[in-house]
Design a protein that fits this description.
Blueprint: H1 2-40, E1 46-49, H2 52-78, H3 85-110, E2 112-116, E3 120-125, E4 127-133, E5 140-147, E6 153-159, E7 164-166, E8 171-174, H4 176-181, H5 184-187, H6 190-201, E9 208-212, H7 214-221, H8 226-236
Parallel strand pairs: 5-9
Antiparallel strand pairs: 1-2, 1-8, 2-3, 3-4, 5-6, 6-7
Length: 239
């Protein structure tokens, strides 16, 4: 009987952790969209949620801690007699603290992102902490486009202070005007990357450019996905 109870509590605890992390992921994404919307309205803007996965990992650890403490409490009750009200109260307090901590982390990381604009890329933590431009001044050292043998694309911008921004592979929050202008539903951020490439190449400042894996791009996208290939050609430029 005790073994069955242990299995049941394990299943319930696992479901709690999974649902808790899933809820955190959804809520933090929604919070980011709300904060971006309040901060920028319907400007042409895209937020790269660079800390989102870190927040999910922290939430998992916190909820897993609640589960482990709950299991320990069940084990302790099975080996003791008498009133366990104090133990239960302590567990509830710890659980409340962990859940509140996950919400604080969610708010913090939802407001920590890279703000991509048409004339700048900005690091934001509630407010803009660093602005990188390439029009009236140049903060960009180089940019690169690469593709691996599986068709995985990377567009990385390296700033003069050593900061690197990877455009692809992030959770994003995109304004409607950005989505429409850069056809994000069809080519994700690739059209925006092509726009940046053209801006960098035509800049009065010297910005290094590196392209690698063109053969993989050609093999994976030229015939199978003309929309993506058209944007890649804009970045690759003249052979």
């Amino acid at each position: 009987m005790n073994k069955n109870k242990g299995c049941l509590s394990g299943i319930i605890g696992t479901v709690f952790v999974v649902l808790g992390v899933a809820a955190y992921a959804v809520i933090s994404s929604l919070m980011n969209r709300v904060f971006i919307g309040n901060a920028h309205g319907n400007d042409v803007a895209c937020a790269l949620m660079t800390k989102w996965l870190t927040g999910v990992a922290i939430a998992f650890i916190l909820y897993e801690a609640i589960f482990i403490l709950w299991q320990f409490d069940i084990l302790k009750k099975s080996k003791s007699q008498g009133d366990n009200g104090k133990s239960k109260k302590t567990l509830l307090i710890i659980a409340a603290v962990c859940i509140c901590a996950s919400l604080i982390v969610g708010v913090l990381f939802a407001n920590t992102y890279v703000d991509c604009r048409e004339d700048s890329i900005n690091k934001v933590c509630f407010v803009t902490t660093k602005e990188y431009r390439w029009d009236d001044r140049n903060d960009v050292l180089r940019y690169s486009l690469s593709c691996d043998e599986n068709g995985g694309l990377s567009f990385q911008i390296t700033m003069k202070d050593g900061e690197a921004v990877e455009l692809f592979g992030n959770v994003t929050s995109i304004s409607d005007s950005f989505r429409e202008k850069y056809d994000a539903d069809k080519v994700d951020l690739l059209s925006y990357a092509a726009y940046l490439s053209e801006q960098f190449d035509s800049s009065e400042f010297v910005i290094e450019k590196k392209i690698s894996g063109v053969e993989y791009m050609t093999e994976k996208y030229k015939d199978s996905n003309p929309d993506i290939w058209a944007q890649l050609e804009r970045i690759i430029g003249e052979p």
